[in-house]
């Protein structure tokens, strides 16, 4: 029986795989065809001098079908637009992923442009001891550690941030010069556990004291009604029994019967007040003892150590 069930499960999984495989291949082929069409449009626009339009088509094609060949087209277009740092990023990606699979002319052209760009931009090599940390430059996310290559940035001030859940955020700041290179080593420190500040149980809220006052009032009223009901009821019952032995005292019998009913009514109302008092007392105890506590968050603290080295102007800071 077990083997039969396993065979049925395997057959179903194989059927799903056979059904999914052609669909996945068809979707991939469709994305490639759309990317090729956009690439062709971009080349036409670039030849016509519409560099911004060409760049938009190339980037759309890359989003549909990330190919190192499209990185090459984006890089050349960015060179023409004089966006040097972005151009170097795409050209290096093309060389890293497609140098051995691309024509020598394309590889030579990419290397020539990248060599010319190195004197106009700055390069930052980042090393981090924790994998999977998000890396941002000037507030824009550029990847996760370990980065595949150097970060190419335009000359000027820049702020680099490395963060990951469970670790203190590290920041690096510097003003970079054209042709400059920086090697930044970041060590992420584990964030301290959040500390809870217990709430003072003895300090009840206004609702707790109000409910306690209501409970006391209801208990008092209920006790009074109980006393009146039981005391008057006992006396009325004794009189009723005495008068019942004398049939000629019909009016007195009715009077004592009414007194008994009134005493029972007082006792019943006393039950109601005692029940309401119990509810109010329970509410009061809840607010005093079992009320959900609010957790106090630790204050945000920033730690900014001094310069990493003489004359470098580098700063790493942590915050939690």
Describe this structure in words.
The chain is α+β, with helices and mostly antiparallel strands and 320 residues long. The protein has 3 domains: 1-117, Tetratricopeptide repeat domain (Serine Threonine Protein Phosphatase 5, Tetratricopeptide repeat, Alpha Horseshoe), CATH 1.25.40.10; 121-195 and 301-320, Carboxypeptidase-like, regulatory domain (Immunoglobulin-like, Sandwich), CATH 2.60.40.1120; 206-290. The chain has helices at residues 2-47, 51-64, 68-80, 84-98, 104-117, 206-244, 250-290, and strands at residues 122-128, 134-137, 140-144, 151-153, 156-163, 169-176, 181-186, 302-303, 315-319. Helix 1 (2-47) packs antiparallel against helix 2, helix 2 (51-64) packs antiparallel against helix 3 and helix 3 (68-80) packs antiparallel against helix 4. It is rod-shaped.
Write the layout of secondary structure elements.
Blueprint: H1 2-47, H2 51-64, H3 68-80, H4 84-98, H5 104-117, E1 122-128, E2 134-137, E3 140-144, E4 151-153, E5 156-163, E6 169-176, E7 181-186, H6 206-244, H7 250-290, E8 302-303, E9 315-319
Parallel strand pairs: 1-7
Antiparallel strand pairs: 1-4, 2-3, 2-5, 5-6, 6-9, 8-9
């Amino acid at each position: 029986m077990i083997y039969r069930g396993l065979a049925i499960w395997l057959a179903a999984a194989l059927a799903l795989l056979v059904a999914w495989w052609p669909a996945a291949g068809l979707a991939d082929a469709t994305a490639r065809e759309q990317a090729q069409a956009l690439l062709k449009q971009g080349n036409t626009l670039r030849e016509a001098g519409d560099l911004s339009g060409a760049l938009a088509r190339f980037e759309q094609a890359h989003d549909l079908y990330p190919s190192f060949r499209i990185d090459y087209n984006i890089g050349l277009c960015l060179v023409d637009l004089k966006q040097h740092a972005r151009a170097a990023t795409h050209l290096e990606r093309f060389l890293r992923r497609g140098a051995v699979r691309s024509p020598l002319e394309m590889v030579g052209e990419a290397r020539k442009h990248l060599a010319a760009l190195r004197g106009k931009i700055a390069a930052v090599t980042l090393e981090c001891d924790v994998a999977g940390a998000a890396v941002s430059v000037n507030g824009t996310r550029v990847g996760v550690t370990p980065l595949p290559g150097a970060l190419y940035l335009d000359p000027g001030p820049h702020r680099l941030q490395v963060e990951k859940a469970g670790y203190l955020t590290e920041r690096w700041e510097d003003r970079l010069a054209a042709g400059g290179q920086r090697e930044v080593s970041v060590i992420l420190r584990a964030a301290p556990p959040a500390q809870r500040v217990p709430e003072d149980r003895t300090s009840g809220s206004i609702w707790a004291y109000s409910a306690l006052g209501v409970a006391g009032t209801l208990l008092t009223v209920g006790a009074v009604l109980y006393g009146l009901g039981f005391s008057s009821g006992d006396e009325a019952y004794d009189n009723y029994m005495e008068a019942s032995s004398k049939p000629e005292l019909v009016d007195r019998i009715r009077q004592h019967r009414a007194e008994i009913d009134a005493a029972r009514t007082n006792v019943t109302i006393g039950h109601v007040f005692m029940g309401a008092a119990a509810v109010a007392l329970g509410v009061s105890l809840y607010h005093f003892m079992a009320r959900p506590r609010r957790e106090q968050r630790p204050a945000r603290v920033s730690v900014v150590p001094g310069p990493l080295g003489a004359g470098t102007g580098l700063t790493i800071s942590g915050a939690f």
